[in-house]
Design brief:
heterodimer, A: 298 residues, alpha/beta, Rossmann fold, 6-stranded mixed beta sheet, 4-stranded antiparallel beta sheet, 10 helices, 14 strands, B: 224 residues, mainly alpha, elongated
Amino acid sequence: MNDLSVLFEGVSKKYPHFSLEDIHLELPTGSIMGFIGANGAGKSTTIRILMGLVHQDAGQVRVLGHSMPADQTAAKLDIGFVSEDLRLYGAATLDWHMGFMQPIYPRWDQRYAESLLRRFDLKPKQTIRGLSHGQRVKAALLLALARCPRLLVLDEPTTGLDPVARQEVLEELMAVLADEERTILFSSHNTLDVEQISDRITFIDRGRIIDSDDKEVFLDRWRRLRLVLPPEVDLPRLPGIVQVGGSGRLPVLTTNTFGPAMVAACAQMGATVQAVDTMTLEEIFVANVHSRREGQPA
Amino acid sequence: MNLSMIRRLVLKDWYLYRWPILASVAGGVISLGIIAYGGKPGFHFGLTIAVTILAFIGALLPISTIIQERKEQTLPFVMSLPISYFEYTAAKILANLLIFLVPWLTLVLGGFALIMTTPAMPHGLVPFFAIMSMEILVSTCLIFAVALITESQGWTIGAILVGNLALNVVGYFVGHIPSIGSGLWGPAIQWSPAATISLLAEFALIALILGLAFFVQSRKRDFI
C-alpha cells in the first residue's frame, strides 16, 4: 500500500474551451479510487492522459513506475482499460477478441475468462454487433479483467446500464478487489456506484481536483447541522462551514470539518443543535462543488 | 518498435476485411478474363472493371480501417493495447498497403502476363502500363496518408477525388511523352529513360507521402 500506481504532478492540458489545471493525484497500489465529477468536469481527459492517449501540456505523469506518455507501451501491458466510449469490433465475435488479446498479455488467464463468460452469461460465438449495451460492457470488462492487470482503469463503465447489469458489473469488480495488489481507478458521475466499491474518493470539477481523501474520512468529516437560533442572535461565521442553508432562525450548516468542537461552538453562541445529519457521498460531492464554485468564477 | 503488436494489428485488419479482399481478387481475375477473351470491347470493359476495383478497394480500405475505427469508437480499444501511436500508424499503413497490394499485384501481374502472352495485345503497352499501375499505387498511398492524418471522411473523399483526377492527368501526360507514346501500340517494348524517370519519381512520391504521414503522426499529441 506504500508505493504509488498512479502519480500526477502539476499536470495541465489546455483546449480552446476547457482546461485541466494543475492536477495532483496519487493512487496508492492496492487502493480503489472513485473519481467523481459532473459531465465535462475533466474525468475522461485525466484518464486519457493517464493512458497516454492525450499528452499533457505540463506536469509529470507516472503510471506503474513508467513515465507517460513516453513509456506508454510498457505501462499499458499492465493496465486494463474500459471506457464508456470504448467499443469492440462489431463484426467479430467475443471469442475472436479473446483470441486476439490472449497472446498480447503474458498474464492472460483463460480459465478466469471462461468463468467470466459464464458469470456474465455471454456467448463467445456471438458477434459483438448482436450484443446488448450491457453485454458489450461486460464483454469489454471480461477482456480487461482476464489479462490480470495491475491497474484497472474504468471510465464511466456503468453508464447506460440497466440496474441488473450495473449490479452484476459492480459485483464482479468487488470480487476482483480480493486481489490486494490490484489498483483500480473508477470514474463515474454516479456516486452510488463509486460509494459501493471505492476506498478513496477524488472529486474533480471544472478541470480542477477539488478534494481527495479516504472515503471514510469524507463520510466522517462532512455533516449537516440543523440549528435553532434565539431571536436576538445572528449567525456568526464559523470556521469549517462550507454552506449555509435553511432560513432565518432555522439555519442548516454544512461542514467539512465536523467534530465535537463544532457542536460546542454552536451551543456557545446560544444556538440549539437540533440534529447532526450524516451525508451521502452524493450530497458531499454536490456541497463540495457548490462551495468551490462560489469561490471561483464560472 | 513493438513489431509483434504491429504484426497483430495488421493481421487483425486482414481478418476483419477478408471478404472485401477476396471479392476484389475475384473481381480482378474476372476482369482479366474479360480482357483476355472479350476482344476489343472486352479490353475496354475489362480495363474499366479492373481500374474500378482498384479505386473501390483503395477508397474502402482507409474509410473502413481508419475513419470507421474512430467513428465506431474501436480506436480507444486499439489504443488501450500496449502500442504507441507511431506503431499504430505503422500498423495501419502496412495493413492497408498489404491488403491493397493483393488485388493490385493480381491485376498488375495478370495485366503484364496478358500483354506478353496475348497476340492481340501490343507489347509496346508495357512502359505505359507500368507507369500507370504505379500511379494507382501513388494515389492510394495519398488517400491512406490523408485518412490517417486528418481522420476525416470529408478530407479522405477529397483525396479520393484528387487521386482519381491525378490518374487521368498523369495518363494524359505520360501518353504524350514522345518516347513513351510513340511506341505505345507497337509490337516491341520501347523502354526509355523517360519511363525510368517516371517510375523513379512515383517511387519517390510514395516514399515522400508515407514519410510525411509518419512525420505528422509523430507530432500529434492527442489521439482520442
